[in-house]
Design brief:
The chain is mostly beta strands. It is built from no helices and eleven strands. It starts with a strand and ends with a strand.
Length: 123
């Protein structure tokens, strides 16, 4: 079924932290690049971060660089997004997606998508 399920979202105060998880079923993640995307109300979906299949290369949008960290544990079939120093502007639904070829450039060519998890940053 090539299913991805996000978890870990919630309500957090500005400056706080959350860790999102992306768990796969129906396939193993070791051959796939995994990207995190987000969509805020009234805005287009944007790429946030991506990690290559091996975990050797990572990419971040300028808006989150230095605050977010992507990682993967292929043995657990899971990819994580650690979000620190959260801002109100980070409020969005966050999605993970898999790319058949294990590279990330351009946040393009992602084949399978999760349903998303809501992140709300507010005091």
């Amino acid at each position: 079924q090539l299913r991805l399920v996000e978890s870990g979202g919630g309500l957090v105060q500005p400056g706080g932290s959350l860790r999102l998880s992306c768990a796969a079923s129906g396939f193993t993640l070791d051959a796939y690049a995994i990207g995190w995307f987000r969509q805020a109300p009234g805005k287009e979906r944007e790429g946030v971060s991506c990690i290559s299949s091996s975990g050797g290369s990572t990419y971040y949008a300028d808006s989150v660089k230095g605050r977010f960290t992507i990682s993967r544990d292929n043995a657990k079939n899971t990819v994580y997004l650690q979000m620190n120093s959260l801002k109100s502007e980070d409020t969005a639904v966050y999605y993970c997606a898999a790319r058949t070829l294990g590279v990330c450039a351009g946040f393009r060519g992602f084949d399978s998508w999760g349903q998303g998890t809501q992140v709300t940053v507010s005091s």
